[in-house]
# Entry
Amino acid sequence: MTIDVQGGAQNEAPVVSAVRQARAYSRSADVIEGVKTAVIDELKRLDPTLKIKKTDYFNHSYAPDLIAVWREAGREQERRIFIRGSLSSVVAAEDVESLADQEPLLIGLGDEKKKVLADLRKQLPASTRTLATEVSATSRIPTLTRDEQRDTQLSGLVRANIVRGGRGLLSDKAADRIVAVEEDEPLEALKAFQSTVRQLFTGATAERLNRTAGLLVEFFEERPSQQTLGLLREEPLLDGELRVVLPYILRRASEVKSSEVWEALASMLTLERLESMSPSLADLDLTPIIARATKSMTAGRSALFPNTEVANDEHAELPPSWKVRNGRLVADVHRWALWMGTDARKIRARDDGTDARWDELSAPLRAFDLTAIELHGLSRRLAVGNEDPDTLREDVERIRGTIKDDFHVAAVTVREKGDADAGEVKVEFEGAVGTGKATVDFHVRAAALLAVRRPLTDEDIETLTGD
# Structure
């Protein structure tokens, strides 16, 4: 794209348009102010956390036009920014060598030809921390929408680190490769992305980006490295890495060829981690990974609600799948929504729960060890408990057969069948909740008791729990 002082190209990027308009001013002071403002806006678009200071200089040989400031590990960091009319002037003035000690960011306002960029690339190796680019190149890296998270995409991580730690030459082609990692076929795009990162970054930034991209490359291989997957189980990804990896791979789930990848990722998950990164996972189908993690993740409460997603269509039903909604893990199952929370405070009870009778629950309860039950009749209420599940069931059957009353089941406490050390879950029918520390897998099966009038099938439960 050529900057034309007279006219300007159609559909040009905002920064290119702002620079063109500024350079058309008649007063030099207005040109300087307009150009600096346009560049500042572009840098803050790339990284909104930056503070940009203007200096009293413009196009000076060794004094910067702007200074970018940020805090890292509690300490203030800065980078000096030099604005040049074109990168060809950078080549001619040998700015790369003369400014090397300042580790600068050199920004050209034009759009150079390949030969100029090739000449500039030859000069750049003399400085390990000088970054040269053009506003036409940075503008090719798009701004994320409000619903997207800047720190959950590989391109977003690059965007956020360009000013802080970039080096080398960020050309239009390099910018396109950065963007393509989110849009193109994953395997080839990731390999091109890694190559670009190696050229643009050094130190911790390059190490972090290359580690993340390298893992993703492995995840899309037909036979991923067993060593890599084994190391992941021993040393799980940090939260910041997982926020990038999970959305990226879930958006491309059909491209994952090995189930071992899902199993390795599932081994890193806890319900607490999912809740903390829920904004990054909104609207994604989490079933491939959650179904493999239900036996290792622990929940403190579950709840069964009518599904508001299909509330207005009495014929609509949603197939079983896991999602994150309102910061919580939830399974859509036909006309039900099954919610999971790390503790009772995070999942509220209903005030219009299901009405259940012993005759309806007797058969499904045989899948559990029953340790306590509350029966509400017309004239009396009974609470029965016994560490021996078989004895408790006999007690309930005796009560049911000898006392003339219309008993409803208010609550049952259940645990894994045959495991006296397993966590117990109290299922309360009026509130439609299950409370107690147990695996998500067990909470799914226990909460299914709440759907006694519109039951979940074995196939539904198997889809959600990976059995």
